[in-house]
Known about the structure:
Blueprint: H1 10-28, H2 31-35, H3 48-60, H4 62-67, H5 78-84, H6 95-108, H7 112-129, E1 138-139, E2 148-149, H8 150-172, H9 181-199, H10 201-209
Antiparallel strand pairs: 1-2
Amino acid sequence: xxxxxxxxxxxxxxxxxxxxxxxxxxxxxxxxxxxxxxxxxxxxxxxxxxxxxxxxxxxxxxxxxxxxxxxxxxxxxxxxxxxxxxxxxxxxxxxxxxxxxxxxxxxxxxxxxxxxxxxxxxxxxxxxxxxxxxxxxxxxxxxxxxxxxxxxxxxxxxxxxxxxxxxxxxxxxxxxxxxxxxxxxxxxxxxxxxxxxxxxxxxxxxxxxxxxxxxxxxxxx
Length: 221
């Protein structure tokens, strides 16, 4: 399986991202999230509020990426991007993970409704901005300083939204949001490619098709 940048369909990814973003607003407005805001989440050392704010940031960060100058040089592919990020495989208390948690907890102080409003506002703004962007538009991901094609960047944000929406739902005892195929298909393709790179194709094949020979894990990260 290959998730090279050229495989991403901008005509489908941008509307899919907007649907994923709308699902974040709906999740943040679930009463169970607000009720557990200060409680521990399913992720170690992350409160429900901090995790919610981190999930929201996957949407609210995007408008600023579109107003910033395009990065120099050729964009990297999705797999090259994940080969460069520093958080994969790091300890819970590594500097990058501590910073992620601190940023989430700081943002959570605004409260669930304010954060939901911010996501809703960003989603409406992006509904205007994204269709106007060219197919070869480049942006800098948070992990930078390299560039990604915009549509690849949106796939990385949809992956974060899908994974952390499940984390958040599990944290507060509600059903995981039912994301549509146009969101989940590119996310699962990306995660499968990363799992193959980490564990090898036979391990992933067995995990999906041969339970009697399946490895203990084929986690992408």
